[in-house]
Amino acid sequence: MSSTPLPKAGVLVPLYIYPLTPNSWDPLYDAIETHPDLEFLVIINPNSGPGDLPSPDPNYAREVARLNRYPNVYLIGYIRIDYCRKPLSDTFAEIDRYAHWAIDERPGLGLGGIMVDETPNHHSVERAEYLQKLHEYVKSVEGILRDRLVVHNPGTPPDPKLADPSPDLILVCEEPYPRYCSDEVQHHLARFDYSRLQCGYMISEVPRDEVRALVQNLRHRAAYIFVTEIAGDFYERFGPQSWGMMMEALQLAE
After folding, report:
1. Which domain of life is it from (predicted)?
2. Mean pLDDT of the chain
């Protein structure tokens, strides 16, 4: 009797590595080309947001245009909102700067959505209104392309009242592996049980011999997965072992 195929999931790539040279992102390009059947959701983060003018700078312009040529890559831009304490006008200005990439004279620079970091997980009327206005802005602003994805990163499952209107993806777990395995985290994940198609997981400090099993488990929980063995600055480096192992595990028995 054959086993049930694992659900298909994509690679979540928090790409916070500055592309100083055309080779800085080689591990990503190698993975994209080696695994054309995997979807890569890549978060571009020039400087905790779109960066200073000119935006994008020449290095980012070169690499963003290159990434956009791959059919299995979907690019979104990073912003952080300090748990809704950043003024909305400042948040909208950063979104506008990303949107301007698509209407820049240089071709191929458009992004397909926004990843909103430091979204809250506890509800208040003011926070809900802030997130609603942000959501509506991303979905309507000229220059954000494709599906205009809205991705929230509270790092833990948020109060459901903060997911209305519903973001396209919620990063419900951003934890080191020992804490991810704790009863506290597992209880919280079970209490707020969002659909796997709406969930992303980012797990660090994963022992090498646990990577494959963890990825296969997370495929039942999440549409997008990021797993690394690195314990510090893990969004600024490609895991020397876990990076390739994650791709292999994601392609098993699809």
Report:
1. Eukaryota
2. 94
d(CA 208, CA 241): 7
Q: Which tokens hold the place of 182?
A: 């704790």
| Cα dihedral across residues 16, 226, 249, 213: positive or negative | positive
Angle (CA) 54 16 65, round 5°: 55
Do the beta carbons of residue 162 and residue 119 sit within 8 Å?
A: yes
Q: Residue 67, exposed/middle/buried by CB under 10 A (0-12, 13-18, 19+)? A: buried
Q: Of all helices (H) and strands (E), which one includes residue 29?
A: helix 26-34
Which amino acid does the sequence have at 99? A
Question: What does 163-224 look like in DSSP terms, one character per residue?
Answer: SSSPPSEEEEEEEEHHHHTSHHHHHHHHHS---GGGEEEEEES--GGGHHHHHHHHTTT-SE
- 13 and 42 in contact (C-beta within 8 Å)? yes
Residues 6+ positions from 85 with CB-CB distance below 8 Å: none
Class of domain 10-251: alpha beta
pTM of the model: 0.96
